[in-house]
Amino acid sequence: MTQTNSITNNASKHKFIILGIVIIAVIAGLFYWNQHKKSASEIITIGISPPFAKPLQVAVDEAKKQGINVKLVEFSDWNTPNITLNHGDIDANYFQHQPFLSNALKETDFKLKPLNVGVATHVGLYSKKYDSLDAVPEHARVVIPNDPVNQGRALLLLQQAKLITLKDPNNHLSNLQDITANPKNFKFIEVEGPQTARAVDDADLVFSYPLYLRLAKTIDPNKALLLDDNTNTRYAILFVVKDDYEQKHPEKAKHLQEFIKIYQTSDKVKQALNSDIGANLWFPGWK
């Protein structure tokens, strides 16, 4: 009888040990799953245009050292980033300046707002065919962006070059109908903003952006026939979020602001900007 009781007790102990191991394994599994889920939920996803990728990736790598996880998603056009952000599929985007955002909000029911400011870049007039603006002939084909905001910016630069005259010389939303004088009878060709960089190969004169030119490798961005003289922050690129982002995602919003601070202050990011854009072609929009 004693031997039977001993066997029974040992079996019970063995069952408890196995049960304990199972419980510990389950708890450990749940803990790991929760941590993995928490980690995944804390990834900040930012939609960007490809030309901004390299300096931003440097900031991503710097942020990771501080426990801030950021994922960059590239978009090839200037419409999808706002659509995707408004749907809530990404946390923020970084590709547009305030005039572009204001125009987008006017034309849609999007609920978006700037959270912080990034860099501003100069824009220029470029040509592979002519070495000076004076050499650009009559009836030249001149490429400008087709969206209202960047077209206005292009026309202001052509006016600065004294190639056209605008009805209101200070209107940053001028369009082709606002041209009151076109002495050389230029033929204007409207294309999507990112495509201006590739148009340099064919057109006589092109308004474009150093970032896109460097990405397209069509012409050295430093070889502009004229750069804009505008150093205000109107055209600084913005980190944009949904209106209620800070209320719905306070922790992620805090980490996003910390990431932006890294982008604004890191020496490594500054070096990347100098290398990728050109030290004389960009300036901080937050100062």
From TrEMBL:
The parts of the chain that form a coiled coil are none
Which protein, by its recorded name, is this? Answer: Methionine transporter
Give the transmembrane region(s): 16-33
What membrane topology does the UniProt entry give?
A: Lipid-anchor
- Kindly indicate whether the keyword Lipoprotein belongs to this entry: yes
Primary localisation category: membrane
Q: Which InterPro entries match?
A: Lipoprotein_NlpA
Originating species: Acinetobacter rongchengensis
Subcellular location(s): the record lists: Membrane
